[in-house]
UniProtKB/TrEMBL annotation:
<keyword id="KW-0540">Nuclease</keyword>
<protein>
    <submittedName>
        <fullName>Endonuclease</fullName>
    </submittedName>
</protein>
<keyword id="KW-0472">Membrane</keyword>
<dbReference type="GO" id="GO:0004519">
    <property type="term" value="F:endonuclease activity"/>
</dbReference>
<feature type="domain" description="Endonuclease/exonuclease/phosphatase">
    <location>
        <begin position="98"/>
        <end position="293"/>
    </location>
</feature>
<keyword id="KW-0378">Hydrolase</keyword>
<dbReference type="Pfam" id="PF03372">
    <property type="entry name" value="Exo_endo_phos"/>
</dbReference>
<dbReference type="InterPro" id="IPR005135">
    <property type="entry name" value="Endo/exonuclease/phosphatase"/>
</dbReference>
<keyword id="KW-0255">Endonuclease</keyword>
<feature type="transmembrane region" description="Helical">
    <location>
        <begin position="33"/>
        <end position="55"/>
    </location>
</feature>
<dbReference type="InterPro" id="IPR036691">
    <property type="entry name" value="Endo/exonu/phosph_ase_sf"/>
</dbReference>
<keyword id="KW-1133">Transmembrane helix</keyword>
<keyword id="KW-0812">Transmembrane</keyword>
<feature type="transmembrane region" description="Helical">
    <location>
        <begin position="62"/>
        <end position="79"/>
    </location>
</feature>
Length: 310
């Protein structure tokens, strides 16, 4: 009986570890979901290995435990690779940004979300799957008179960017081949300091090769914009995904020391960050936090503060 239990634990652990280890061989799109959970799955593998060893002492249990620990540690190292140096708390923020995928059928919570946005104090608001806010636009525009999306620049209401300051040369373009108008590009002048804003909504990574094509498009757009830059939105995958790692490295993007988990809602802090706020020097993140109330969405929103280095 003990041999059977040990065998079951070992087989399941081996399958999990083999799946996430394939990232070192291929970035096949169907496995991207598992790559995003590398730290979680490796930790589960370590727990299962310990459980197997408690049932029966065997060298294979020690082997799977060692591999689990190595995969978990490397996952943490990869997440830390793009962390920017912390900013002094006393340093004033140049602006605040909110980024939130509110879910396109979340109409019942539209008024509450609009109330939250107005009271947030954010200078720029990036709303994805924004259809529930379409009826709330008249009162949102009293606080945020400048916007793009939801009828301005696109007929659809997937992306809505609201700003308290004028949007300089706002434009919308497609990402990849699957969905239209999922990238907005604009510039905002904060008392003489211009900052480029990119709001992106990427496809789920297991939809064929579309996610990789969208990342490729972002990698072509970003170099055309000079100066401070922020890229925010719903990537539908964590920073551990190979294509997102490629984007971060090639474009010199940075992130916060600890990205807040934004999905799934029920997992809370034990979920994964699939909504991101990335910056390019000289722009830096001073802070980023999760909006704890999901307002009926399947994502948590993010609120961030920024500074610009001399």
């Amino acid at each position: 009986m003990r041999d059977t239990i040990f065998c079951v634990f070992s087989v399941l652990t081996t399958l999990v570890l083999a799946t996430i280890s394939l990232r070192y061989i291929t970035d096949f799109y169907l496995l991207s979901f598992f790559y995003s959970f590398q730290v979680h799955l490796a930790a589960a593998g370590a727990v299962a290995s310990v459980a197997a060893l408690l049932v029966k002492r065997h060298w294979y249990g020690l082997l799977t435990l060692a591999i689990s620990v190595l995969l978990a540690v490397h996952g943490i190292v990869m997440m830390r690779e793009f962390v920017e140096p912390s900013v002094e708390e006393s340093r004033p923020a140049l602006f605040r940004l909110m980024s939130f995928n509110i879910e396109n059928d979340n109409f019942a919570n539209g008024p509450d979300i609009a109330d939250m946005v107005i009271a947030s104090g954010a200078d720029v608001v990036n709303i994805l799957e924004a259809e529930p806010l379409l009826s709330e636009l008249p009162r949102l525009l009293k606080t945020y008179p400048y916007y793009i999306g939801c009828g301005v620049g696109m007929e659809q209401c997937d992306t809505l960017v609201l700003s308290k300051r004028p949007l300089i040369e706002p434009r919308i373009r497609n990402l990849g081949l699957l969905w239209r108008n999922r990238l907005t590009i604009s510039t905002i002048d904060f008392d003489g300091q211009k900052v480029n804003f990119l709001a992106a909504h990427l496809t789920k990574p297991y939809y064929d090769e579309f996610h990789g094509l969208e990342v490729w498009d972002l990698a072509e757009v970003i170099p055309t914009l000079s100066g401070p830059l922020v890229l925010a939105g719903d990537f539908n995958t964590s920073i551990l995904a190979p294509d997102v790692q490629y984007l971060m490295r090639t474009q010199g993007l940075g992130t916060a020391s600890l990205e807040p988990a934004t999905w799934p809602i029920r997992a809370g802090a034990f979920g994964i960050p699939i909504d991101h706020i990335f910056t390019r020097a000289p722009l830096r993140l001073k802070s980023v936090r999760r909006i704890e109330n999901g307002f009926g969405s399947n994502h948590f929103g993010l609120m961030a503060e920024f500074v610009v280095d001399p």
